[in-house]
Amino acid sequence: MRFGIITFPGSNGDHDALMAVRLGLGQPAELVWHTETDLSNYDCIIIPGGFSYGDYLRAGAIARFAPVMQAVAREAEAGKPILGICNGFQILTEAQLLPGALLRNASLEFVCDWVWVRVEQTHTPWTSQLARGARLRLPIAHGEGRYFVDEKTLGELERAGQIVFRYVDAEGNATPEANPNGSIANIAGVCNGRGNVVGLMPHPERAFDRLIGGDDGLWILASVLAVGLEVVRGRGGN
Amino acid sequence: MNETARWRAEVFVSLRPGVNDPQGLAVRDGLRRLGYQEVEEVRVGRYVQVWLQAPDVQTAERRIAAMCEQLLANPVVESYRFVIEPAESQ
Question: Which residue of the set A44, A86, A144, A191 is catalytic?
């Protein structure tokens, strides 16, 4: 399964994602420069973390107009699995491929830590190999990760099963203390209506090996691999 | 007759009411600590100036509103207002 990882000026998680896919999953992956306009060569897309365009105006606001984003929108429409990590999540909300917005952390501080997240939905390609309620330990590193939607939209996301990850404590409870940035309803990640586009603030690609502190992130990347293999089998391919 | 004029727009972007503004809270607390006990609420926003060419003020307003919707503000969480005035030509 071929992974395309998009590099914007200011991305800094692109090589992390590349290593996670190549070493952690043993799958081919390539960096794709933001001026590319065709992503049809890739089976899935990762929009990595960083500070694209210096986070000028708002995080993700400028990256959204990069030429490659039209291709991302096209692939999203076509149902291809797309994962936005941290700044990638911010870009996907700015592009309105995901609902909501990511605001300055409630603490006003940049947070760099390991957190627990609970898997809330398993119908997405990025969580297909996980059990609902499973807990993952993942690193976070962001200043603008406070997820926000209005109350009405929150209810709609809840009903439609679009809340994919929540910040929880070690026992799996979504407490205010376990919420690192003041996100509404402890939301750490969401998906689009169809489920193929997922965004989250934590960094699964920075947790693909015990050597770097944990390997829970591999479950998210391996989930898409499992879905990809099913698609290939369904097509009657090898 | 394609005469255009130069305009200056001042755009004020702020978080919508109801959206928690931790920056505003921090500034409010700072002001109170400085002795400004009368301060009830502070909300921090963004100020953008745009110089543009347009044949008339209505066109300039329409273009600036579109710029706000598309880029200068995030309609999910922010609202905006602007004032436009003639600018000296360069």
Answer: A86
What are A18's two structure tokens? 């590349």
Q: B29: which residues sit within 8 A by CB, 6+ positions away? A: none
In tens, the pLDDT along A56-69 reads 999 999 998 899 99
User: Which amino acid is residue A165, in one-letter code?
Assistant: F
Q: Which residues of A touch B74 (CB under 8 A)?
A: 58, 61, 94, 101
Domains and CATH numbers, chain B: 5-19+45-86 (3.30.1280.10)
How high is the ipTM of this complex? 0.82
Given a cut of 80, whether residue A198 has pLDDT beyond it is yes
Which A residues in the span 43-102 are in contact with B, Cβ-Cβ below 8 Å?
A: 57-58, 61, 65, 93-94, 100-101
Mean pLDDT to the nearest integer, A141-157 = 97
Is the separation of the CB atoms in B50 and A76 below 8 Å?
Answer: no
Residue B25 φ/ψ, nearest 5 degrees: -65, -40
Architecture of the CATH domain A3-234: 3-Layer(aba) Sandwich (3.40)
- For A38-53, the three-class secondary structure string (H helix, E strand, C coil) is CCCCCCEEEECCECHH
| Domain ranges within chain A, ordered by starting residue | 3-234
Q: Is B66 within 8 Å of chain A by CB?
A: no
C-alpha torsion sign, points A207, A210, A214, A216 = positive
Q: In a structure prediction context, what are the per-residue pLDDT tens digits for chain B, which is 90 residues long? A: 467 899 999 999 999 998 999 999 999 999 999 999 999 999 999 999 999 999 999 999 999 999 999 999 999 999 999 999 999 877
